[in-house]
Amino acid sequence: MSCWTTLHDYGLRSIGYGERLLPKSDFTLCDQFVLIGSGLIWNLYFGILALFFGFFLATAVGLGKSAKSAWVRMPSQFFIFVFRGSPLFIQFFLFYEAFVLLPKMGVTIPLGFTEINLETRWLTRAWLGALIVLVLNTAAYSGEIFYGALKSIPKGEIEAADAYGLSGWKRFRRIIWPTMMRLAWPAYTNEAIFMLHATTLVFFASFPAWRQSGDALYYASYFADKTFNPFIPYPIFAMYFILITLTITFVFGRINRHLNRHLPQELRPKMRLRPQIMR
Amino acid sequence: MFSFCSDPSTLEGGKWLACYLTTGKHMAFYQSFGTVLGLLFVTAPVALLFGFLGAMAARSHFTPMRWLGRIYMAVVRGVPDIAFFLFFVIALDQGIEWLRHKALCPDWTEPVRQGNDFVVCPAAKMPLSSAPQWIHDTYSFSLAVFTFAIVFGAFAANVLFGAMRAVPRPQMETAEAYGMSHRQAFWRIMVPQMWVFALPGLSNLWMILIKATPLLFLLGIKDIVYYAKELGGYKTQAFAYPHPDWRVFYFLGLLVFYLLFTKASQIVLDKIMRRLTHGQATLGASFDKEVTA
How is domain B3-292 classified at the CATH fold level? Predict the structure, then answer.
């Protein structure tokens, strides 16, 4: 079997296309590269969507934490405290068990041209349940980052905005938000990287890999269990993740440059990776 | 535990709960919290040692040594650490068995890797198959500690490396002016001064380490996650204490445990930081607020 057929059979295995059965013996290097790479689709799916939804929630939480009203501030603080103070691994277990207990039912939402059937059993599937946990988790971590950035916006900028007669939404949109992003960006890059690393926990924390469709680490550990040789699948897995980490650093670095384009060269903040793993 | 627990089927309400929560398995569950704390208190110093060695290597004047230190620090940041946990537990085990195999069975001719099997001579098995259960437990626990120490050592190396660079340059120059050698200046001037710069990073690391402890479950150790799953699961009438699926409550308990633990650590670390940076115009003093946030 050539590597092309393997790619054809297993390239999209993790999302349910191609060969049903996983290879059972005589694993070639190609098998391992293709299947682990196929699992990467899940890591990217979780990482990108969680970061996307988490970003908006984080902005809300960050602003909420700095709100004057205690009714807004306390829930935001509590949310951040709970999700940053406990391990993601435990959060996965807790949410999964809670989702399992939900009564099985469906809600139909008419959208005019079509309708969507929402079912509670989807919550026990990784694609939705784990995504929700990841969104909440990353929102808490980035909310804290945004809150810190919000606190360190130079007073002068806000006074200038007031002097120009900007207020409310306009002041937020044009002055506060861009500066907040600029200040938070290096830390947020870090968060994005470790968020993506955290996606590997999904299939090891209760959420079942339905029909053996798992993420990259799921397949890597499958090979390690079957061949009893950890020295091939894990380095392949590591290579993929180093590539992803480099890509994120590059893309976020570009955005960072864009956010700081008005500053003189020597004032631009440098991107620096800081450990913040294992939430 | 209590005298009235002899026949669980007749119990009601509070008494039932009192008996339920003191069964032998629950006692093992409470002890497993000790396992977690034990892991933390053994791992933290070992990881700090690894970190110190890593940072020293990364600063070394001997190029291959420096590369080794830098690579150690860099790789762990680029790869998710669960992968390291899963990898090292098997790799360390196989490495130890292979070394023992080479030492104890020199006349064994068959290859160690046969297809999908890893075969060493019976005398090289680690622990020996005849060993009592507690040796097996201790062995797997030590493997876990070592794995944690390798991963967290890399993070500590990173923090300490930064802290060493944060020690003001004039301090080192003064040391040189006094005629101290590199080694003397390092041990007498840099090492005592770097801790205050390292503390914010190290306290962050301690929090991360606390939150990484449930991963013991993945390393095949009967820790709190294992017991929460086991005890919380649905129990039929065949069991002495039948109950529906209570796992969600057990995990809620674990969540609260971790929240309290991280909160308490935070308070203690803030106190230490305030004391160490009292009246000092260091970076650490300004970190004071950030760590709390």
Answer: MetI-like fold (1.10.3720)
